[in-house]
Amino acid sequence: MVYGAVELTQVVEMLIKEPAQRQVISNILSLFVLKGIDVLVPLLVAPFLIKVVGIEKFGLIAFSLAFAAYFSAAINYGFNITASRDIARCRHDANQVAWIYSHILASVVILSFGCALAAAGVVYFFPRLYEESWLFFGAFTLVIMQSALPVWLFIGYEKMAFIGGLSAASKVLYIGSLFLLIRTEQDYVYVNIINAVSAAVVLVAALFLIRYSFGVRFVSITLSGVITSLKGGWSVFVMQLSPVLYNNSSVFVLGATFPPSVVGVYSAAMRVAEVATTGGRLLANAFLPYIAVDIDRHEAFSKFMIFVGGMVGGVIFVFSSAIAELLFSEGEELISYCLKWFSFGVFFAFLYLTYSQNYLPLVSKERVVAKMTFVVSVLGLLLLVIFIPLFGLTAAVSVFVISRFVLAILSVTFYVKSHAK
Length: 421
Description:
Layout: H1 5-15, H2 19-76, H3 79-90, H4 94-125, H5 127-130, H6 133-148, H7 151-157, H8 161-181, H9 191-212, H10 223-257, H11 260-293, H12 298-318, H13 320-327, H14 332-357, H15 366-391, H16 393-420
Helix pairs in contact: 1-12, 2-4, 2-6, 2-8, 2-10, 2-11, 3-4, 3-7, 3-10, 3-11, 4-6, 4-10, 6-9, 8-9, 10-11, 10-15, 10-16, 11-12, 11-14, 12-14, 13-14, 14-16, 15-16
Protein backbone atom coordinates (compact mmCIF):
# COMPACT_ATOMS: atom_id res chain seq x y z
CA MET A 1 0.00 0.00 0.00
CA VAL A 2 1.36 3.42 -0.99
CA TYR A 3 0.65 6.20 1.45
CA GLY A 4 -0.28 9.70 0.37
CA ALA A 5 1.04 13.13 1.17
CA VAL A 6 -1.08 13.40 4.34
CA GLU A 7 0.57 10.34 5.90
CA LEU A 8 4.01 11.59 4.86
CA THR A 9 3.32 14.95 6.50
CA GLN A 10 2.30 13.18 9.71
CA VAL A 11 5.53 11.20 9.75
CA VAL A 12 7.61 14.36 9.24
CA GLU A 13 5.73 16.12 12.06
CA MET A 14 6.39 13.13 14.30
CA LEU A 15 10.10 13.34 13.56
CA ILE A 16 10.48 16.94 14.68
CA LYS A 17 8.47 16.84 17.92
CA GLU A 18 11.15 15.60 20.29
CA PRO A 19 14.95 15.76 20.51
CA ALA A 20 15.30 11.99 19.96
CA GLN A 21 13.23 12.25 16.81
CA ARG A 22 15.07 15.30 15.54
CA GLN A 23 18.25 13.26 15.98
CA VAL A 24 16.93 10.87 13.33
CA ILE A 25 16.77 13.74 10.84
CA SER A 26 20.36 14.63 11.70
CA ASN A 27 21.33 10.99 11.22
CA ILE A 28 19.65 10.89 7.81
CA LEU A 29 21.43 14.02 6.61
CA SER A 30 24.79 12.82 7.89
CA LEU A 31 24.42 9.37 6.38
CA PHE A 32 23.42 10.85 3.03
CA VAL A 33 26.64 12.87 3.10
CA LEU A 34 28.69 9.82 4.07
CA LYS A 35 27.20 7.03 1.96
CA GLY A 36 25.11 9.03 -0.47
CA ILE A 37 28.23 10.64 -1.90
CA ASP A 38 29.75 7.16 -2.29
CA VAL A 39 26.95 6.35 -4.72
CA LEU A 40 26.49 9.75 -6.34
CA VAL A 41 30.17 10.03 -7.20
CA PRO A 42 30.17 6.86 -9.35
CA LEU A 43 26.97 8.07 -10.97
CA LEU A 44 28.60 11.39 -11.83
CA VAL A 45 31.86 9.75 -12.82
CA ALA A 46 30.33 7.01 -15.01
CA PRO A 47 29.50 9.32 -17.94
CA PHE A 48 33.05 10.73 -17.79
CA LEU A 49 34.63 7.27 -17.77
CA ILE A 50 32.44 6.00 -20.62
CA LYS A 51 33.44 9.05 -22.65
CA VAL A 52 37.19 8.79 -21.93
CA VAL A 53 37.92 5.06 -21.66
CA GLY A 54 34.87 3.74 -23.54
CA ILE A 55 32.01 1.50 -22.46
CA GLU A 56 34.15 -1.64 -22.91
CA LYS A 57 36.79 -0.55 -20.40
CA PHE A 58 34.03 0.77 -18.15
CA GLY A 59 32.61 -2.76 -18.28
CA LEU A 60 35.97 -4.17 -17.18
CA ILE A 61 36.03 -1.78 -14.22
CA ALA A 62 32.51 -2.89 -13.26
CA PHE A 63 33.56 -6.53 -13.64
CA SER A 64 36.49 -6.06 -11.24
CA LEU A 65 34.28 -4.32 -8.69
CA ALA A 66 31.69 -7.11 -8.92
CA PHE A 67 34.44 -9.63 -8.19
CA ALA A 68 35.66 -7.61 -5.20
CA ALA A 69 32.10 -7.18 -3.89
CA TYR A 70 31.96 -10.88 -2.97
CA PHE A 71 34.77 -10.26 -0.51
CA SER A 72 33.22 -6.99 0.66
CA ALA A 73 30.21 -8.92 1.96
CA ALA A 74 32.51 -11.33 3.79
CA ILE A 75 34.59 -8.56 5.41
CA ASN A 76 31.60 -6.43 6.42
CA TYR A 77 30.07 -9.55 7.97
CA GLY A 78 26.85 -7.78 8.95
CA PHE A 79 28.62 -5.56 11.49
CA ASN A 80 26.90 -2.48 10.07
CA ILE A 81 23.68 -3.78 11.64
CA THR A 82 24.74 -5.89 14.65
CA ALA A 83 27.48 -3.53 15.86
CA SER A 84 25.28 -0.45 15.30
CA ARG A 85 22.50 -2.08 17.32
CA ASP A 86 24.81 -3.19 20.14
CA ILE A 87 26.55 0.18 20.48
CA ALA A 88 23.22 2.05 20.37
CA ARG A 89 22.09 -0.01 23.35
CA CYS A 90 25.25 0.38 25.45
CA ARG A 91 26.76 3.67 24.25
CA HIS A 92 26.78 5.08 27.78
CA ASP A 93 29.04 2.24 28.95
CA ALA A 94 32.52 3.25 27.77
CA ASN A 95 34.10 -0.10 28.64
CA GLN A 96 31.50 -2.09 26.70
CA VAL A 97 31.79 0.22 23.70
CA ALA A 98 35.59 -0.17 23.72
CA TRP A 99 35.23 -3.95 23.86
CA ILE A 100 32.83 -4.03 20.90
CA TYR A 101 34.92 -1.56 18.91
CA SER A 102 38.18 -3.45 19.43
CA HIS A 103 36.84 -6.92 18.72
CA ILE A 104 34.85 -5.88 15.66
CA LEU A 105 37.91 -4.21 14.13
CA ALA A 106 40.02 -7.26 14.98
CA SER A 107 37.46 -9.44 13.25
CA VAL A 108 37.56 -7.17 10.19
CA VAL A 109 41.37 -7.43 10.02
CA ILE A 110 41.25 -11.23 10.22
CA LEU A 111 38.52 -11.45 7.59
CA SER A 112 40.41 -9.03 5.33
CA PHE A 113 43.58 -11.11 5.52
CA GLY A 114 41.74 -14.32 4.68
CA CYS A 115 39.87 -12.71 1.80
CA ALA A 116 43.08 -11.17 0.44
CA LEU A 117 44.69 -14.60 0.20
CA ALA A 118 41.62 -16.04 -1.50
CA ALA A 119 41.31 -13.14 -3.96
CA ALA A 120 45.02 -13.28 -4.87
CA GLY A 121 44.75 -17.00 -5.54
CA VAL A 122 41.73 -16.61 -7.81
CA VAL A 123 43.30 -13.77 -9.81
CA TYR A 124 46.61 -15.61 -10.17
CA PHE A 125 45.12 -18.88 -11.43
CA PHE A 126 42.72 -17.38 -13.99
CA PRO A 127 44.58 -15.84 -16.95
CA ARG A 128 41.72 -13.52 -17.90
CA LEU A 129 41.77 -11.98 -14.42
CA TYR A 130 45.56 -11.99 -14.16
CA GLU A 131 45.80 -9.88 -17.32
CA GLU A 132 43.96 -7.14 -15.43
CA SER A 133 45.66 -7.77 -12.08
CA TRP A 134 46.21 -4.07 -11.30
CA LEU A 135 42.53 -3.39 -11.87
CA PHE A 136 41.55 -6.18 -9.48
CA PHE A 137 44.20 -5.13 -6.94
CA GLY A 138 42.71 -1.64 -6.85
CA ALA A 139 39.17 -2.99 -6.52
CA PHE A 140 40.09 -5.28 -3.62
CA THR A 141 42.06 -2.55 -1.84
CA LEU A 142 39.03 -0.28 -2.17
CA VAL A 143 36.83 -2.97 -0.62
CA ILE A 144 39.14 -3.37 2.39
CA MET A 145 39.32 0.37 3.03
CA GLN A 146 35.53 0.76 2.83
CA SER A 147 34.78 -2.36 4.90
CA ALA A 148 37.19 -1.38 7.67
CA LEU A 149 35.54 2.03 8.12
CA PRO A 150 33.67 1.79 11.45
CA VAL A 151 30.54 3.58 10.29
CA TRP A 152 28.61 1.33 12.68
CA LEU A 153 30.16 3.12 15.67
CA PHE A 154 29.04 6.53 14.42
CA ILE A 155 25.56 5.12 13.72
CA GLY A 156 25.36 3.65 17.20
CA TYR A 157 26.36 6.98 18.76
CA GLU A 158 24.09 8.85 16.32
CA LYS A 159 27.04 11.12 15.48
CA MET A 160 27.41 10.57 11.76
CA ALA A 161 28.08 14.24 11.02
CA PHE A 162 31.69 13.78 12.18
CA ILE A 163 32.52 11.39 9.40
CA GLY A 164 30.22 12.89 6.79
CA GLY A 165 32.47 15.89 6.27
CA LEU A 166 35.57 13.73 5.92
CA SER A 167 33.86 11.55 3.35
CA ALA A 168 32.78 14.58 1.33
CA ALA A 169 36.34 15.97 1.35
CA SER A 170 37.85 12.65 0.23
CA LYS A 171 35.38 12.36 -2.65
CA VAL A 172 36.33 15.82 -3.85
CA LEU A 173 39.93 14.57 -3.86
CA TYR A 174 38.85 11.44 -5.75
CA ILE A 175 36.92 13.33 -8.43
CA GLY A 176 39.70 15.88 -8.87
CA SER A 177 42.34 13.16 -9.19
CA LEU A 178 40.18 11.22 -11.61
CA PHE A 179 39.66 14.16 -13.95
CA LEU A 180 43.35 15.03 -13.70
CA LEU A 181 44.87 11.57 -14.17
CA ILE A 182 42.40 9.65 -16.36
CA ARG A 183 43.08 11.16 -19.78
CA THR A 184 43.27 8.21 -22.19
CA GLU A 185 41.72 4.77 -22.62
CA GLN A 186 44.81 3.08 -21.14
CA ASP A 187 44.40 4.97 -17.84
CA TYR A 188 41.39 2.84 -16.85
CA VAL A 189 43.66 0.64 -14.69
CA TYR A 190 44.14 3.52 -12.24
CA VAL A 191 40.44 4.22 -11.56
CA ASN A 192 40.04 1.72 -8.71
CA ILE A 193 43.38 2.66 -7.15
CA ILE A 194 42.44 6.34 -7.05
CA ASN A 195 39.15 5.42 -5.38
CA ALA A 196 40.96 3.21 -2.85
CA VAL A 197 43.31 6.04 -1.85
CA SER A 198 40.35 8.33 -1.16
CA ALA A 199 38.72 5.63 0.99
CA ALA A 200 41.98 5.19 2.93
CA VAL A 201 42.02 8.90 3.76
CA VAL A 202 38.56 8.62 5.34
CA LEU A 203 39.52 5.48 7.28
CA VAL A 204 42.62 7.03 8.87
CA ALA A 205 40.80 10.24 9.76
CA ALA A 206 37.86 8.28 11.25
CA LEU A 207 40.15 6.25 13.52
CA PHE A 208 41.69 9.49 14.84
CA LEU A 209 38.23 10.95 15.45
CA ILE A 210 37.09 7.88 17.36
CA ARG A 211 40.18 7.94 19.56
CA TYR A 212 40.48 11.67 20.29
CA SER A 213 36.91 13.01 19.92
CA PHE A 214 34.94 10.04 21.23
CA GLY A 215 37.60 8.78 23.63
CA VAL A 216 37.17 5.17 22.55
CA ARG A 217 40.33 3.17 23.14
CA PHE A 218 41.50 -0.19 21.89
CA VAL A 219 41.39 -2.89 24.55
CA SER A 220 43.09 -6.26 24.70
CA ILE A 221 41.83 -8.63 22.04
CA THR A 222 40.92 -12.21 22.95
CA LEU A 223 40.19 -15.08 20.61
CA SER A 224 36.97 -15.82 22.45
CA GLY A 225 35.91 -12.19 21.98
CA VAL A 226 36.52 -12.35 18.24
CA ILE A 227 34.58 -15.60 18.02
CA THR A 228 31.72 -14.03 19.99
CA SER A 229 31.64 -11.07 17.59
CA LEU A 230 31.58 -13.37 14.58
CA LYS A 231 28.87 -15.57 16.04
CA GLY A 232 26.77 -12.52 16.86
CA GLY A 233 26.93 -11.28 13.30
CA TRP A 234 26.48 -14.63 11.53
CA SER A 235 22.74 -14.44 10.82
CA VAL A 236 22.93 -10.86 9.57
CA PHE A 237 26.02 -11.79 7.55
CA VAL A 238 24.04 -14.48 5.73
CA MET A 239 21.17 -12.03 5.31
CA GLN A 240 23.44 -9.48 3.61
CA LEU A 241 25.71 -11.94 1.78
CA SER A 242 22.84 -13.71 0.07
CA PRO A 243 21.67 -10.77 -2.11
CA VAL A 244 25.27 -10.35 -3.28
CA LEU A 245 24.89 -13.76 -4.94
CA TYR A 246 22.48 -12.32 -7.48
CA ASN A 247 23.35 -8.58 -7.31
CA ASN A 248 26.99 -9.04 -8.24
CA SER A 249 26.74 -12.41 -9.93
CA SER A 250 24.65 -10.82 -12.67
CA VAL A 251 27.61 -8.57 -13.53
CA PHE A 252 30.13 -11.35 -13.00
CA VAL A 253 28.32 -13.93 -15.15
CA LEU A 254 27.65 -11.33 -17.84
CA GLY A 255 31.35 -10.46 -17.84
CA ALA A 256 32.32 -14.12 -18.09
CA THR A 257 30.01 -14.89 -21.03
CA PHE A 258 29.50 -11.63 -22.96
CA PRO A 259 31.69 -8.75 -24.19
CA PRO A 260 32.60 -6.03 -21.65
CA SER A 261 30.34 -3.59 -23.52
CA VAL A 262 27.27 -5.56 -22.37
CA VAL A 263 28.53 -5.39 -18.79
CA GLY A 264 29.03 -1.66 -19.26
CA VAL A 265 25.40 -1.13 -20.28
CA TYR A 266 24.07 -3.20 -17.39
CA SER A 267 26.38 -1.53 -14.87
CA ALA A 268 25.53 1.96 -16.08
CA ALA A 269 21.81 1.31 -15.51
CA MET A 270 22.55 -0.35 -12.20
CA ARG A 271 24.48 2.73 -11.02
CA VAL A 272 21.32 4.81 -11.43
CA ALA A 273 19.10 2.26 -9.70
CA GLU A 274 21.58 1.83 -6.86
CA VAL A 275 21.46 5.56 -6.13
CA ALA A 276 17.78 5.12 -5.29
CA THR A 277 18.28 1.83 -3.44
CA THR A 278 21.13 3.27 -1.40
CA GLY A 279 18.88 6.18 -0.50
CA GLY A 280 16.50 3.65 1.03
CA ARG A 281 19.36 1.87 2.76
CA LEU A 282 20.57 5.15 4.25
CA LEU A 283 17.10 5.94 5.56
CA ALA A 284 16.86 2.47 7.07
CA ASN A 285 20.28 2.76 8.74
CA ALA A 286 19.50 6.23 10.11
CA PHE A 287 16.25 5.02 11.66
CA LEU A 288 17.77 1.78 13.00
CA PRO A 289 18.97 3.02 16.43
CA TYR A 290 15.74 5.02 16.81
CA ILE A 291 13.58 1.93 16.22
CA ALA A 292 15.88 -0.35 18.23
CA VAL A 293 15.08 1.64 21.36
CA ASP A 294 11.31 1.46 20.80
CA ILE A 295 9.97 -1.06 18.27
CA ASP A 296 6.55 0.63 18.25
CA ARG A 297 8.12 3.41 16.19
CA HIS A 298 8.39 1.01 13.25
CA GLU A 299 4.82 1.58 12.09
CA ALA A 300 5.38 5.25 11.27
CA PHE A 301 8.74 4.40 9.72
CA SER A 302 7.13 1.80 7.43
CA LYS A 303 4.59 4.32 6.09
CA PHE A 304 7.37 6.74 5.32
CA MET A 305 9.52 4.12 3.53
CA ILE A 306 6.68 2.74 1.41
CA PHE A 307 5.70 6.21 0.24
CA VAL A 308 9.26 7.22 -0.62
CA GLY A 309 10.03 3.89 -2.32
CA GLY A 310 6.92 4.12 -4.49
CA MET A 311 7.66 7.69 -5.52
CA VAL A 312 11.32 7.04 -6.36
CA GLY A 313 10.56 3.88 -8.34
CA GLY A 314 7.83 5.68 -10.27
CA VAL A 315 10.11 8.56 -11.21
CA ILE A 316 12.79 6.19 -12.54
CA PHE A 317 10.21 4.28 -14.62
CA VAL A 318 8.63 7.37 -16.17
CA PHE A 319 11.86 9.23 -16.89
CA SER A 320 14.13 6.27 -17.76
CA SER A 321 14.76 7.45 -21.33
CA ALA A 322 15.51 11.01 -20.27
CA ILE A 323 17.86 9.81 -17.53
CA ALA A 324 19.78 7.57 -19.94
CA GLU A 325 20.12 10.28 -22.58
CA LEU A 326 21.14 12.89 -20.03
CA LEU A 327 23.85 10.85 -18.32
CA PHE A 328 25.37 8.56 -20.93
CA SER A 329 26.91 8.95 -24.38
CA GLU A 330 26.72 5.28 -25.43
CA GLY A 331 24.03 2.58 -25.20
CA GLU A 332 21.23 4.93 -24.15
CA GLU A 333 18.41 2.76 -25.51
CA LEU A 334 19.52 -0.41 -23.72
CA ILE A 335 20.26 1.52 -20.53
CA SER A 336 16.72 2.96 -20.61
CA TYR A 337 15.31 -0.55 -21.09
CA CYS A 338 17.19 -1.78 -18.00
CA LEU A 339 16.13 1.22 -15.94
CA LYS A 340 12.42 0.57 -16.52
CA TRP A 341 12.78 -2.89 -15.03
CA PHE A 342 15.12 -1.76 -12.26
CA SER A 343 12.51 0.80 -11.13
CA PHE A 344 10.38 -2.07 -9.82
CA GLY A 345 13.40 -3.53 -8.08
CA VAL A 346 13.94 -0.22 -6.28
CA PHE A 347 10.46 -0.33 -4.73
CA PHE A 348 10.89 -3.99 -3.75
CA ALA A 349 14.22 -3.11 -2.10
CA PHE A 350 12.49 -0.46 0.05
CA LEU A 351 10.00 -3.10 1.23
CA TYR A 352 12.81 -5.51 2.07
CA LEU A 353 14.71 -2.87 4.05
CA THR A 354 11.56 -1.84 5.91
CA TYR A 355 10.34 -5.25 7.00
CA SER A 356 13.48 -7.40 7.04
CA GLN A 357 16.47 -5.25 7.98
CA ASN A 358 14.66 -2.79 10.22
CA TYR A 359 12.15 -5.05 11.93
CA LEU A 360 12.76 -8.79 12.01
CA PRO A 361 16.33 -8.66 13.43
CA LEU A 362 15.12 -6.24 16.12
CA VAL A 363 12.56 -8.80 17.35
CA SER A 364 15.14 -11.61 17.39
CA LYS A 365 14.17 -13.02 13.97
CA GLU A 366 17.61 -12.80 12.38
CA ARG A 367 17.60 -16.48 11.47
CA VAL A 368 14.30 -16.17 9.66
CA VAL A 369 15.71 -13.36 7.52
CA ALA A 370 18.96 -15.23 6.96
CA LYS A 371 17.25 -18.40 5.77
CA MET A 372 14.82 -16.48 3.59
CA THR A 373 17.47 -14.41 1.84
CA PHE A 374 19.83 -17.36 1.48
CA VAL A 375 17.27 -19.58 -0.26
CA VAL A 376 16.03 -16.85 -2.60
CA SER A 377 19.56 -15.71 -3.44
CA VAL A 378 20.86 -19.19 -4.18
CA LEU A 379 17.89 -19.80 -6.47
CA GLY A 380 18.55 -16.43 -8.12
CA LEU A 381 22.19 -17.35 -8.63
CA LEU A 382 21.22 -20.65 -10.26
CA LEU A 383 18.82 -18.84 -12.59
CA LEU A 384 21.57 -16.39 -13.54
CA VAL A 385 24.03 -19.15 -14.36
CA ILE A 386 21.42 -21.00 -16.45
CA PHE A 387 19.74 -18.16 -18.32
CA ILE A 388 22.36 -15.41 -18.80
CA PRO A 389 24.37 -17.50 -21.33
CA LEU A 390 21.09 -18.02 -23.23
CA PHE A 391 19.34 -14.65 -22.98
CA GLY A 392 22.08 -12.25 -21.87
CA LEU A 393 21.02 -8.83 -20.65
CA THR A 394 17.30 -9.67 -20.47
CA ALA A 395 17.98 -12.62 -18.17
CA ALA A 396 20.24 -10.57 -15.88
CA VAL A 397 17.65 -7.82 -15.45
CA SER A 398 14.69 -10.21 -15.06
CA VAL A 399 16.32 -12.43 -12.43
CA PHE A 400 17.45 -9.39 -10.47
CA VAL A 401 13.95 -7.89 -10.30
CA ILE A 402 12.19 -11.22 -9.63
CA SER A 403 14.58 -12.03 -6.78
CA ARG A 404 13.91 -8.66 -5.14
CA PHE A 405 10.16 -9.16 -5.61
CA VAL A 406 10.22 -12.55 -3.86
CA LEU A 407 12.34 -11.15 -1.00
CA ALA A 408 9.92 -8.24 -0.58
CA ILE A 409 6.84 -10.52 -0.47
CA LEU A 410 8.46 -12.89 2.02
CA SER A 411 9.61 -9.97 4.19
CA VAL A 412 6.09 -8.57 4.42
CA THR A 413 4.69 -12.05 5.11
CA PHE A 414 7.07 -12.76 8.00
CA TYR A 415 6.51 -9.25 9.35
CA VAL A 416 2.75 -9.78 9.43
CA LYS A 417 3.17 -13.13 11.19
CA SER A 418 5.62 -11.75 13.73
CA HIS A 419 3.64 -8.55 14.30
CA ALA A 420 0.42 -10.50 14.88
CA LYS A 421 2.03 -12.26 17.84
